Amino acid sequence: MDTLKSKIQAEGQVLSDQVLKVDAFLNHQIDPSLMGEIGDEFARRFADAGVTKIVTIEASGIAPAIMTGLKMGVPVIFARKHQSLTLTDNLLTSTVYSFTKRVESTIAISMTHLSSDDHVLIIDDFLANGKAAQALISIIQQAGASIAGLGIVIEKSFQVGRQELEKQGYRVESLARVKSLEGGQVTFVE
Amino acid sequence: MDTLKSKIQAEGQVLSDQVLKVDAFLNHQIDPSLMGEIGDEFARRFADAGVTKIVTIEASGIAPAIMTGLKMGVPVIFARKHQSLTLTDNLLTSTVYSFTKRVESTIAISMTHLSSDDHVLIIDDFLANGKAAQALISIIQQAGASIAGLGIVIEKSFQVGRQELEKQGYRVESLARVKSLEGGQVTFVE
């Protein structure tokens, strides 16, 4: 997706060979118009996949997920990382280690909102080692629902996330595939 | 906003005289179409307010904020409650106590994205005692930016949040104003 790649080149900051900071338009400040285009693109790619629900994880997954949900006409659920007074019962949980936050956290979805009839599209802002994606898959499987695929805004293709997901048979659609961040430069997979 | 009030009556759960659970369409599962209508309504109400930026707080504020940003054509910033490896420098912070989570947390915005030229619309999912709103106001003032007003999805009008914000001279636009949750019933301000 060319507009996204241009935005990454123009406004992304390479903090190290591993870390790309896109706080200017995705992870802190959000560009709503770009999110709209991202929603259009995911909706187009998964148009025939029979998606009944979108699942993402707070906080940065919410904007691309909600735009995709709007285009596809399906509800969005965001997995919670933090305990809430109102989110208490019927929880499906899984643990995930976040590299960028350096903490292990428990993520949770209420089984009230997911059933074995659901065919779920997972949307997330980043795919790196795939830990968050695997935790979401675990929760969706606990609910007895099936998985239509994963829509990723930015994939770090030099990490193992995609490879392992594909090995498990999941369809992964990434809108920007970053081949390398070496030398402070973002290069994309052709 | 009638569609929102109907949704609250149909799918909201009164957990106590103080707590309304709307995890079915706002705080956990999100109804993208309803969020689109909410964005339209905030954009209509603040059309002439000269808004240059929207500020919200993760996680539940993001969906209504991004839809409003899309309609108004302005960027959205979400204040972070949790430390991130990429959000490190030039932070403006404030502390807020969350009643529903029973924790005091520090919220942060990078001053990279807010300047004294900005006229900010604050969007949030709930207004109760106004603690989160006051923390956002503090951060926006630290950046030297001005405040166009506050757009709230659900206001608990029986708590002091709106009263105190109006006393400080801020414009508050709430799409559903809950007068009482007594007896397990949601009643709205006429």
UniProtKB/TrEMBL annotation, chains A, B:
Record-listed E.C. numbers: 2.4.2.22
Location of the protein in the cell: Cytoplasm
Primary localisation category: cytoplasm
Gene Ontology MF terms: xanthine phosphoribosyltransferase activity
Pathway: Purine metabolism; XMP biosynthesis via salvage pathway; XMP from xanthine: step 1/1
Record's keyword terms, sorted: Cytoplasm, Glycosyltransferase, Purine salvage, Transferase
InterPro entries: PRTase-like (IPR029057), PRTase_dom (IPR000836), Pur/Pyrimidine_PRTase (IPR050118), Xanthine_PRibTrfase (IPR010079)
Pfam families, A to Z: Pribosyltran
Catalysed transformations (reactions): XMP + diphosphate = xanthine + 5-phospho-alpha-D-ribose 1-diphosphate
Domain of life: Bacteria
Gene3D superfamilies recorded: 3.40.50.2020
GO biological processes: purine ribonucleoside salvage; xanthine metabolic process; XMP salvage
Any one Gene Ontology cellular component term annotated for this protein: cytoplasm
Enzyme class (EC, first level): transferase
Quaternary assembly: Homodimer.
Family: Belongs to the purine/pyrimidine phosphoribosyltransferase family. Xpt subfamily.
Name used for this protein in its record: Xanthine phosphoribosyltransferase
Gene source species: Pseudomonas luteola
